[in-house]
Design goal:
single chain; 701 residues; Glycosyltransferase; Immunoglobulin-like; Jelly Rolls; 3 domains; nine-stranded antiparallel sheet; 29% helix
């Protein structure tokens, strides 16, 4: 049976018609007026690589001034439908080339051609139809078309009523068709999220583009929120799935195939650039996480002049895509050469001074980058990007850049792993360490090369501070990163000196906040005093401070618990996360009846953890539970005895920013008839930095 999905001018389920809170920069998507002035100047001066790129641009089959548009009433994309979306792609490519030509040459015949194409479509198109692939049409081509409109908005020959009609088409047809992909995956009903990161990234980019085009700040801000969230596959922390040493960011689609993997990176670059031109820095978000993914992907695919493919690390990736997906190695199709690298390289190296060696290699090897529809025989994938990056994004080489940044220190057992971003002109690096933040720093390693910016130290137990310098320069050192090896109290929930109904406090030096909800209160603890958190199973829970565990590598969680009767399935003792896609949690009893400690950054299907036999023996009795992680080794103790062990690469800091840090409540959607809340008492709940050993666990009992 054919499934038909239609989005058109008669459906308006997520359209914003709001006044912008603050004015946008116009033009301010992929290109600004300053960009066009730079390009014109370089061409006039006959400078390379701009001059060669300009000549190549004008050989495009879509740069013809006599191009004739072919608007369609309905655009179809998807197997089983009369697919005609290539017609739309080609007309957008022609409108874009005409717009670029006008901005560079000033020839209004090109401006008129671009306007003619846009008017033809806004007067004809009524809907986008097909299977789920129609959402890609809405996202990819909506972003492209909005960029054309943004360039042309200042042209006096484009009538106001025609411009408004074009904006209406973008908001009512393209936006609705694309953004439904995101809306269908709100974190409410579980962790089954379909498709891959490129779908979400296409919609985020389209929403940014249409938001700016239509001066819709609400739409724009929502797109930014989604990218910064921890739930959607297109969110930064999901699409750059795992950071290997040296800030090589394994991407969500790396194990699928390289065509889709490079598609995701290219779409990420586009949305970062558009946000940048509106003074929102997504390039630098989460310590340049996008660059980590770009460098990883460039290294995977680079193979020019007989270099061969470089080796990269890879961890198993699990996902839920209609069927269960487990990918244990890099996907096929290495050497997928999309016109995406000039944009990325020029931002990081020539704007910011941050070394991006693999992106740079790719950008230089592909000069001049070609435009839309000019690769792979003009198939559908050849229209994924507008292209011409060498011409449009190349900037002058930055004059000075010499200090490292983004240094992090992560504890892994008895070792400290250091990673940092390097400056463009660094030759090598030295590592310095101190035992006090304002004390004397001693050099512990010299002449570290520039290929992989990582170093592992074994300093012994204690608190240590690190910084990185570039050798042979007078530049400032990097930021200082702190590491602690050992064990110390990190959080301790206590009702000390408070009465019933009062809020508990954190006895640790961190003084994290604690809130109680729906009547949660103090109860009688294991020693017969008012020391326990009392939860009745009827939507009562405690909420701990945001990002409670986000800086921890090795850790321990320990607590006494008492269950008031048999608990419902899926009730969780604790759950620290950001929705049903990312969490560290302990379930009292999962669907098969067993208790389960687990963590994940990819939803329920990607969980790793320790599962017991049956439910916990805690009904009307006190038991002690503890879990520790030392490096990759996770151990769970029940009443001081080892109850299970496993390997787990997802330390708490890899879970990312957590806004739902709960005792007694689950990340998953709570249906009224389920009420999977913990029912009982929790006493002496503590978190430690570092992994306690078995003797230390028993001393807590």
């Amino acid at each position: 049976m054919k499934i038909i999905i239609i989005f058109g001018i008669f459906i308006h389920f997520f359209v914003y018609f709001s006044i912008a809170d603050e004015e946008f920069v116009h033009p301010g998507l992929l290109h600004t007026n300053e960009d066009f002035e730079r390009i014109k100047n370089k061409i006039e001066l006959k400078e390379e690589p701009w001059l060669s790129a300009w000549k190549q641009f004008n050989t495009s089959r879509f740069a013809r001034p006599n191009y004739s548009p072919r608007p369609q009433k309905i655009i179809y994309r998807g197997i089983g439908f009369p697919q005609n979306y290539i017609t739309l792609c080609q007309d957008i490519a022609a409108a874009y080339c005409a717009a670029i030509n006008w901005k560079i040459t000033g020839n209004t015949s090109y401006a008129d051609k671009s306007v003619e194409i846009m008017n033809a479509w806004s007067s004809t198109l009524t809907s986008i139809q097909g299977n789920n692939d129609l959402q890609l049409a809405g996202g990819l081509y909506g972003c492209h078309f909005a960029n054309v409109g943004e360039i042309m908005r200042s042209y006096k020959g484009w009538k106001t009523e025609d411009f408004n009609k074009f904006k209406g088409m973008m908001a009512n047809i393209f936006f609705n068709a694309g953004w439904g992909r995101i809306l269908g995956n709100q974190p409410t009903s579980g962790s089954k999220r379909f498709y891959y990161s490129n779908w979400d990234l296409a919609q985020i980019g389209m929403a940014i583009a249409v938001g700016v085009l239509t001066d819709n700040r609400t739409m724009f801000n929502e797109a930014i929120r989604v990218y910064k969230s921890d739930w959607y596959w297109g969110a930064s922390s999901q699409f750059i799935y795992y950071l290997h040493p040296g800030y090589f960011g394994q991407t969500q689609e790396a194990g699928r195939d390289q065509g889709h993997n490079t598609l995701s990176i290219g779409l990420g670059g586009i949305l970062c650039e558009m946000a940048w031109n509106q003074d929102v820095d997504l390039y630098g978000w989460d310590n340049n996480r996008f660059l980590a993914g770009a460098e990883y992907t460039a290294k995977v695919n680079y193979n020019f002049n007989g270099s061969g493919f470089a080796d990269v690390p890879y961890i198993t990736y699990a996902n839920y895509y209609g069927n269960d997906v487990v990918q244990t190695m890099l996907g096929p199709g290495k050497g997928n050469n999309r016109p995406i690298w000039s944009l990325i390289y020029n931002h990081y190296e020539n704007r910011m001074g941050i070394s991006a060696p693999w992106s740079k290699k790719y950008a230089i090897a592909m000069r001049p980058e070609i435009g839309s529809g000019n690769i792979n025989g003009g198939n559908g994938g050849s229209y994924d990007f507008l292209g011409f990056g060498t011409l449009l994004y190349q900037q002058d080489t930055i004059s000075e850049s010499c200090y490292p940044e983004g240094l992090t220190a992560r504890v892994n057992g008895t070792k400290v792993e250091l990673n940092w971003w390097g400056p463009v002109y660094a030759i090598n690096y030295s590592i310095q360490r101190s035992t006090t933040i304002n004390g004397k720093f001693k050099t512990i390693k010299k002449k570290i090369g520039t290929q992989i910016l990582t170093y592992t130290d074994s300093p012994g137990k204690g608190t240590f501070y690190y910084r990185v310098l570039t050798n042979g320069s007078t530049c400032a050192a990097s930021n200082i990163a702190k590491a602690f090896i050992g064990t110390k109290l990190y959080f301790s929930l206590s009702f000390k000196n408070v009465s019933n109904g009062s809020l508990p406090i954190d006895l640790s030096e961190n003084k994290f906040s604690i809130k109680l909800f729906n009547g949660a209160s103090v109860g009688v603890g294991i020693k017969g005093k008012q020391t326990a958190l009392s939860l009745n199973g009827n939507m009562q829970y405690a909420e701990l401070e945001n990002n409670l565990l986000s800086e921890l590598s090795d850790y321990s969680i320990a607590t006494w618990l008492f269950c008031n009767g048999k608990l419902p399935k899926n009730a969780r003792l604790f759950d620290f996360g950001a929705g049903p896609g990312r969490y560290i949690a302990f379930s009292m009893q999962i669907s098969n009846g067993n208790w389960h400690f687990k963590s994940t950054v990819g939803g329920e299907f990607a969980e790793t953890g320790i599962q017991g036999q049956g439910s916990l023996d805690c009904v009307n009795k006190w038991i002690h539970l503890a879990v520790t992680q030392l490096g990759e080794d996770v151990t769970l103790y029940l009443n001081g005895t080892v109850a299970g062990q496993t390997k787990n690469l997802m330390s708490p800091f890899r879970i990312g920013n957590t806004t739902n840090n709960w005792l007694g409540r689950s990340q998953f959607y709570i249906r009224p008839y389920d009420r999977p809340y913990f029912r009982g008492l929790i006493d002496g709940f503590e978190i430690y930095e570092g992994a306690l050993n078995q003797k230390q666990i028993n001393e807590l009992m």
